[in-house]
Amino acid sequence: MGATQFDRSAEDFGNIVSLEHCNMQIPDQRLAAVFYLEGLGLTRDPYMHVTDANMWVNAGRNQFHLPNRRPTNVFRATIGLVVPHLDLVRARMPVVQAKLEGTRFTWSDEGDTIRVTCPWGNRLRVHAPGAFGRMELGIPYVDFPVARGSAEGIVRFYRQVLKAPAHRVESAGGAAARVKVGLDQHLIFSETDQPIEAYDGHHIAVYVADFSGPYKWLLERGLVTEESDAWQYRFEAICDPLSQQPLFEIQHEVRSLGHPMYPRHMSLVNRNPRQSQGGYAPGRDAYYVGGTPAAS
To answer: In b/e form, how buried is each residue of 44-60, taking b as 16+ CB within 10 angstroms?
Structure first.
């Protein structure tokens, strides 16, 4: 045996094995297509919700779910997005800006990242591959602003209730709770002095290995907000297990590994955003996440 030492805890996933999707209601699929498909280079799910009632957008093994209804949802967060070709996003921003005039769309080039705001105010920060482990295309984090003094309690909630690796971190802006929710994926709760926006019902979806343990804790405290079906339930309030004090609201759609859709995220269809009619390359339509990247 060699003398190499490994940090085995770095490979601990805990109970949450995947952050699958972010869900927000939008009122106009055409504008959503301009922003998510044309601007960001993502892919509309060709198999699910292909009518005008909903729109699922693939980002690697993750998704944005965009039900077409009002009121519009605005995430109280910055959603991280890794794309394989940041240069394409940079080039397409001026094009979609003209098409999204009169909406809340904005963008700014920060060199190694691009900050964008969707037509309805949802904030994203777009990264190139390499910043988050092996992720080439996907959602590596959702960063929520929370009240000062709440990070420790949020860490306790995810450690004790969801059984997820979580710890407090310090940055120039102050303390934050960082929660591991899948391979190269985290929920971040960053303390701020700014007023926290009102919660409007947007949600995240996670898959968990221990499905009943968190459910029992939440149910005993009246925190389960939806008994969806045999494979899913929902809750909204993040509470400090010590004080029982509510710290933040974000609906969690909690799914078991027995959920009929659990394996599906491993094989979502993603397109090569470099393909075009004028410069078509045969056999390179797809982008294979975790496999052979689309030719540049």
So the answer is: bbeeeeeeeebbbbbbb
Cα-to-chain-centroid distance, residue 291? 22
Span 13-265 CATH architecture: Roll (3.10)
Q: Quick one: pLDDT band at residue 109, thresholds 50, 70, 90?
A: very high
Strand partners, 138: 82
Nearest Cα neighbor of 246 from 154, 152, 148 is 154
User: Is 275 in contact with 285 (CB distance < 8 Å)?
Assistant: yes
The chain-wide mean pLDDT, for the chain, equals: 94
Q: Is-contact 57 41, C-beta < 8 A?
A: no
- pLDDT tens, position by position, 187-202: 999 999 999 999 999 9
| Domain ranges within the chain, ordered by starting residue | 13-265
Written in H, E and C, the secondary structure of the chain is CCCCCCCHHHHCCCCEEEEEEEECCECCHHHHHHHHHHHCCCEECCCCCCCCCCCEEEECCEEEECCECCCCCCCCCEEEEECCCHHHHHHHHHHHHHHCCCCCCEEEECCCEEEEECCCCCEEEEECCCCCCCCCCECCEEEEEEECCCHHHHHHHHHHCCCCCEEEEEECCEEEEEEECCCCCEEEEEEECCCCCCCCCCEEEEEECCCHHHHHHHHHCCCEEEEEECCEEEEEEEECCCCCCEEEEEEEEEEECCCCCHHHHHHCCCECCCCCCCCCCCCCCECCCCCCCCCC
Stronger pLDDT, 12 or 44, i.e. the higher one: 44
